[in-house]
Amino acid sequence: MATCIIANGALSMGKKVSLFFTFWGLNILRRPKAVQTQKNLIERAFEYMMPRGTKKLKLSKMNMLGLGTEMIKGIMKKHNVEPLDKLLAAIRDGGGRLVACRMSMDLMGIRKEELIDGVEDGGVATYLADAEKGNINLFI
Q1: Domain 2-8+17-133 carries which CATH code?
Q2: pTM of the predicted model, to two decimals?
Q3: Which long-range contacts (CB under 8 A, 24 or more apart) does 5-9 make?
Q4: Element at 32 (helix H, strand E)
Q5: Are 119 and 100 in contact (CB under 8 A)?
Q6: What's the CA dihedral at 50, 60, 77, 33 to 10 degrees?
Q7: Any idea where the domains of the chain sit in the sequence?
């Protein structure tokens, strides 16, 4: 959430934005509905264990069986903060880059077609090259 708010703020200031998603962060980029793909047993297990998309994410250890997540969503709505899926779309629509870690995708059995539209795939070198070009780098 914080990353998307900061990224949208940077875009509104005319800055270039590139977000690199790795390991569990890839779940944010997954399409809400399953996509038919060819996977082995381990990859299928990962697919079923991991949340699919922004609406299925939990609020860290403060989840409290879902109550914490619903509470923060209510507070966000009260304060006119867009939900995560809209913040992510605003980044993409505002010219920000969403980059999925290719190595993490391979390890976790996530296929490119399972990700939301507009996501690029790249490796650590992609992240490091973007970080080197930028004058601000946040690793959250």
Answers
A1: 3.40.1260.10
A2: 0.85
A3: 5/81, 5/87, 6/138, 7/87, 7/91, 7/96, 8/87, 8/90, 8/91, 8/94
A4: none
A5: yes
A6: 0
A7: 2-8+17-133
Coil, strand or helix at 18: strand
Single-letter amino acid, residue 3: T
Tokens in use for 36?
Answer: 């038919």
Three-state DSSP string of 60-122: HHHHHHHHHHHHHHHHHHHCCCCCHHHHHHHHHHCCCEEEEEHHHHHHHCCCHHHECCCEEEE
| Distance between CA atoms of residues 36 and 63, nearest Å | 30
Cα 26 to the center of its chain, rounded Å: 5
pLDDT tens readout for residues 101-132? 999 999 999 999 999 999 999 999 999 999 99
Q: Crossing angle for the helix pair 2-12 and 84-93, nearest 10 degrees?
A: 30
Share of the chain above pLDDT 70, in %: 96
pLDDT in tens, 33-53: 888 888 988 888 888 888 888
